Amino acid sequence: MYLSFDDGPNPLVTEKVLDLLEKYNAKASFFCKGQNARLYPDILEKIKSAGHTIGNHSYSHLNALNVTNKKWLIDALRKSPVSDSFFFRPPYGKIFPWQCYRLKKDYKIVFWDVLTYDYRIDFTASKVIKIARKKIRNGSIIVFHDTIMAAPRMLPALEDTLKHYSQNGYRFDKL
Ligand SMILES: [Zn+2]
């Protein structure tokens, strides 16, 4: 399966994710916001040196449904420490076909098939674990969030996923 982490890097959360991944010998993909990558270059470096994949998740995470095409494209393509990545994941998974057409000139666009809702503050960690267990299949792309908001659910769910699925013969690869 392919674990992915959106919206980081974050100085209080990302290193905990890296520790867990290392503990289970797992590789993953980090879709970083350009503005966070600029704020926390040392954490970005730690992700890279651990051998994980970095993807661009736009500069400041605009929703394609709420802003003009031009504004969205400028933000998506804005230069940052992650803008030269091979992969791009649209914020909120929202992108119009003509934006897709433009982005494909520079990136391979990646979505996901398993959303665990780790960002839902009204969900418990055990609910998020249950969702992950129910949805994950061979070859799944799972999206977690390495943010302060998601951490109380994401970290237990990540540990459960790594533990449970390594016991069941799964491998954790980067994109
Ligand atoms: Zn995001």
Can you give a write-up of this model?
This protein is of the alpha/beta class and 175 residues long. It has a single domain (2-167), classed as TIM Barrel, CATH 3.20.20.370. 39% of the residues lie in helices and 14% in strands. It is built from 7 helices and 7 strands, in the order E-H-E-H-H-E-H-E-H-E-E-H-E-H. The chain has helices at residues 14-23, 34-39, 41-49, 69-77, 97-103, 125-135, 151-167; strands at residues 2-6, 28-32, 53-56, 87-88, 108-109, 114-115, 141-145. It has a 7-stranded parallel beta sheet with strand order 5-4-3-2-1-7-6. The protein is globular, with a radius of gyration of 15 Å. The relative contact order is 0.22. Bound molecules: zinc ion. The site of zinc ion has 5 residues, from loops.
Poorly predicted ranges (pLDDT <50, ≥5 residues)? none
**Terminal CA distance:** 10 Å
Secondary-structure element order, N to C = EHEHHEHEHEEHEH
The major sheet is characterized as: 7 strands, parallel
Give the tally of structural domains. Answer: 1
**Overall CATH class:** Alpha Beta
Structural class: alpha/beta
Distinct small molecules bound, one entry per kind: zinc ion
**CATH homologous superfamily - what is it?**
Glycoside hydrolase/deacetylase
- Shape descriptor reads globular
User: Could you name the CATH topology?
Assistant: TIM Barrel
What number is the mean pLDDT? Answer: 98
